[in-house]
């Protein structure tokens, strides 16, 4: 969601040093093109975006597409992944899933014939949680962005096309 992009971008900017973090979402009508052009000129960086960037956009040499929240349908998942490995370049895509969401992998392999493999975490994701909590306590803007992101994520998750897999309960 747009709110999630705002939060993830701000959190990454505070936590990840020496990497340019840029954000694009659907509510940035006028700034979106300027940010996109600026990002394309970077040697390296992280672009946090909504599905507004999933189709018809070409950014050369994208190494990774990370999907924090699962695409609303199988076709959107494929289009997100399609931002990498363009014009003969290699690329990878990663989707973060909870254990209760693993049926999505089977769904994608049947529906879209997507070859997928599990990637083991090198670190416990809980390691970053204390840093995020400290950040939210010390920075009111990050706290508010986090609250908005949480609400919008829950609303989006509740309306997911694959509601048999992505359940709130």
From TrEMBL:
Q: Which SUPFAM superfamilies match?
A: P-loop containing nucleoside triphosphate hydrolases
Membrane-spanning ranges: none
Domain Helicase C-terminal: residue ranges: 1-127
Q: Which reaction does it catalyse?
A: ATP + H2O = ADP + phosphate + H(+)
Which keywords accompany this UniProt record?
Answer: ATP-binding, Helicase, Hydrolase, Nucleotide-binding, RNA-binding
Q: Pfam family of this protein, just one? A: CTE_SPB4
Q: Which InterPro entries match?
A: Helicase_C-like, P-loop_NTPase, SPB4-like_CTE
Gene Ontology molecular function, alphabetical: ATP binding; hydrolase activity; RNA binding; RNA helicase activity
Q: What is its EC number?
A: 3.6.4.13
Q: Which domain of life is it from?
A: Eukaryota
Known role: RNA helicase.
Family classification: Belongs to the DEAD box helicase family.
Domain remarks in the entry?
A: The Q motif is unique to and characteristic of the DEAD box family of RNA helicases and controls ATP binding and hydrolysis.
In Swiss-Prot or TrEMBL terms, this protein is called ATP-dependent RNA helicase
Q: Which organism is it from?
A: Scyliorhinus torazame (Cloudy catshark)
């Amino acid at each position: 969601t747009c709110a999630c992009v705002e939060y993830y971008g701000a959190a990454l900017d505070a936590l990840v040093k020496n990497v340019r973090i840029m954000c694009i979402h659907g509510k940035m009508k006028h700034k979106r093109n300027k940010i996109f052009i600026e990002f394309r000129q970077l040697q390296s960086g992280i672009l946090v975006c909504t599905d507004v960037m999933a189709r018809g956009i070409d950014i050369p040499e994208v190494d990774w597409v990370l999907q924090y929240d699962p695409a609303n349908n199988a076709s959107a998942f494929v289009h997100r992944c399609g931002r990498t490995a363009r014009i003969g370049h290699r690329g990878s895509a990663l989707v973060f899933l909870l254990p209760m969401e693993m049926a999505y992998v089977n769904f994608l392999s049947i529906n879209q014939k997507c070859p997928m493999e599990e990637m083991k975490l090198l670190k416990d994701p809980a390691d970053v949680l204390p840093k995020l909590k400290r950040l939210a306590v010390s920075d009111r803007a990050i706290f508010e962005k986090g609250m908005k992101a949480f609400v919008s994520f829950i609303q989006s998750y509740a309306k997911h096309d694959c509601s048999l897999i992505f359940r709130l309960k």
